[in-house]
């Protein structure tokens, strides 16, 4: 997920991908990554709980962008700062996170069901 997100941000325009895919595709992948990380760390926890926790994390990260301090704004101008914290608040990012979390949740359910069916 991380490599796909970085590749999208770095080379998306060179590949001729549309603005919306490049701009919000990384947020979608980031939301998926957060869900999958939580699911890996707590595999016995209900998927819906992991999805809710991932969404809470995504919203908190996005809201954190509304906080400004000189040192933090300077860090946000670096590549690492932009990737970790983002630069500006956008409710559209929250929507992209939700879509990514939903896609990861659906994939998690589908892959679990197929694994379970294979063991019958």
From TrEMBL:
This protein's name: DUF2809 domain-containing protein
Pfam family, one: DUF2809
Transmembrane as UniProt keyword: yes
Superkingdom of the source species: Bacteria
InterPro entries: DUF2809
Keyword terms, alphabetized: Membrane, Transmembrane, Transmembrane helix
Membrane-spanning segments: 20-42, 49-68, 88-107
Lineage: Bacteria, Pseudomonadati, Pseudomonadota, Alphaproteobacteria, Hyphomicrobiales
């Amino acid at each position: 997920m991380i490599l796909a997100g970085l590749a999208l941000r770095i080379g998306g325009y060179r590949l001729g991908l549309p603005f919306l895919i490049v701009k919000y595709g990384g947020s979608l992948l980031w939301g998926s990554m957060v869900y999958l990380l939580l699911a890996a760390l707590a595999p016995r926890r209900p998927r819906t709980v992991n999805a809710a926790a991932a969404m809470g994390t995504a919203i908190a990260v996005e809201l954190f962008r509304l906080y400004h301090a000189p040192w933090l704004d300077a860090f946000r101008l670096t590549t690492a700062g932009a990737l970790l914290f983002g630069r500006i608040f956008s409710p559209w990012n929250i929507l992209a996170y939700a879509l990514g979390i939903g896609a990861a949740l659906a994939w998690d359910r589908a892959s679990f069901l197929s694994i379970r069916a294979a063991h019958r």
